[in-house]
Amino acid sequence: MSKENTEYLISRNKKIYEVIIGLEVHAQVISNSKLFSSSSTKFGAEPNTQVSLVDAAFPGMLPVINEFCIKQAIKTGLGLRAKINKRSVFDRKNYFYADLPQGYQISQFNYPIVGEGSVIIDMPNGQKTVGIERLHLEQDAGKSIHDMDPQNTLIDLNRSGVALMEIVSKPDLRSPEEVSAYIKKLRSIMRYLGTCDGNMQEGSLRADVNVSVRLKGTEKLGTRCEIKNVNSIKFMQMAINYEANRQVDLIEDGKTINQETRLFDTKKNETRSMRNKEDAHDYRYFPDPDLLPLEVSDEFINKLIAEIPELPDDKKKRFIDKFKLSSYEATILVSDLETSKYFEEVVENSDVKLATNWITGDLFAVLNDKNLEISQSPVSAKNLSKLINLIKNGTISGKIAKTIFELMMDGDKDPSKIVEEKELKQESDPKELEAIINKVIQDNPDKVRDFKSGKTKLFGFFVGLVMKVSGGKANPQLVNDILKQKL
Ligand code: MN
User: Fold this and answer.
1) Residue 110 exposed, middle or buried by CB count within 10 Å (0-12, 13-18, 19+)
2) Is 289 exposed, middle or buried (0-12, 13-18, 19+ CB in 10 A)?
3) Distance, CA 58 to ligand 1 centroid (Å)?
4) Where in the chain are the domains?
5) Residue 60 vs residues 53, 55, 92, 102, 405: alpha-carbon distances, Å
6) How far is the CA of 166 from the centre of ligand 1 (A)?
7) Which of 167, 183, 185, 220 is nearest to 20 (CA)?
8) Residue 115 C-alpha to ligand 1 middle, in angstroms?
9) Rounded-to-integer distance, Cα 52 and Cα 68, Å
């Protein structure tokens, strides 16, 4: 299963290094209220308008666990085929920072809510399984704003206390491409589940990237560096690329790699040291005395299992079985839940092959071009299936369909109306076509002579000319048949 053929290898002085990557993804839980308070989590509100006394850490305030967030975390664990821990414990992770009013983050350390699991990624040369180490729940901190006031740092506590799932992978990733596939798959699973919107621009999904290198063929892991808080896939890839090469250079220069926390400077495309990597004991973790250990029953978990929708891997399998799609086509169509729904709506009443080609070809191109989600598609699934049926039953040619598709985008027009209005119906009457073909043959006696003397490539010339004369409306199959007889 796990072919390592998409790995990133670095050669230096006749030695080959491989790159080992593990991710700690912070995924914001979809929930109207925070993990331990009833404040809103809505994005983009005025600073400090969504802060309860708990979030601001006023003395004597007690956290109250949000049951919905627990459900979301367990659902995500189920989506990661992971072990759900019926007993987990919230700990205080102590550190000082201005945007952390409590002086500690409530997190889970020894007993996370979700244990080991796995995520399957599709790479060009096959599938690969990436191990999940754990998933735990924790609070987000507030936000320090350094660039609004020249003298002061401003603090916005709206995010303080928002529920995060920290999803820790095993060090199974071997290249920037695999990291990209992994993040996309993780995001896809959580979107299917409705547990995280995966919006990286808004910071709902960000990752700490652990990178180390070692000589290919050796077992022992090298010293790793952690690149903090990277919020786009492209930046993750750039950071890994830079960091891996930096580490190889250090080793080749006979220097040692410091285990440290680094930041990625997106403008200079380099990673820089922030601080020496802290170990767990630096945080003085201890169970939060304000919160009892969290215990969930089998019944609670079973109810959630019953709510899990068909997930990308199962949907992909079904699409391959039911619609005879290739693995590649199925992967594309299921990667986004809305796309898969659109596809199923189109094929319900039309041809699978044509639907696949139109969606992954023309439709995706338009959406890409206009920067739209499929839910905002200017052509509805219903009208696309109508267009496909017009091709399928011979009313229009594939070429004319492209023209009609362009016209449909203006207000999601019904393609059959466009065919009528613009008189784009395919000419399939043999008599009409014969007339055109006779004229074309008459007008080009020299080409006919050349064709008959063996220049068979000229057949295409005649087909093209007939199509042109017919305004693109001639039925290409019939034109071929009649031309063959006449010539
Ligand atoms: Mn964390």
Assistant:
1) exposed
2) exposed
3) 23
4) 4-304, 310-422, 430-486
5) 9, 12, 16, 11, 64
6) 6
7) 220
8) 16
9) 18
Which residue, chain included where needed, has tokens 């093209």? Answer: 464
Question: pLDDT tens for residues 68-107?
Answer: 999 999 999 999 999 999 999 999 999 999 999 999 999 9
The rounded Å distance from CA 218 to ligand 1 centre is: 30
Instruction: Please give the distance, rounded to the nearest whole angstrom, from the Cα atom of residue 396 to the centre of ligand 1.
Output: 57
User: What distance in angstroms lies between residue 308's CA and the mean position of ligand 1's atoms?
Assistant: 26
Whether 391 shows a pLDDT value over 50: the answer reads yes
SS3 290: coil
Residues 430-486, CATH architecture: Orthogonal Bundle (1.10)
The answer to whether the CB of 287 falls within 8 A of the CB of 304 is no
Instruction: Find all residues with CB under 8 Å of 319, minimum gap 6, and list them.
Output: 325, 329, 330, 333, 334, 340, 343
Q: What angle do CA 423, 424, 430 make, to 5 degrees?
A: 100
108 CA to centre of ligand 1 in angstroms: 9
Ion ligand 1, residues whose Cβ is below 5 A away: 166
Give me the amino acid identity at 464. Answer: G
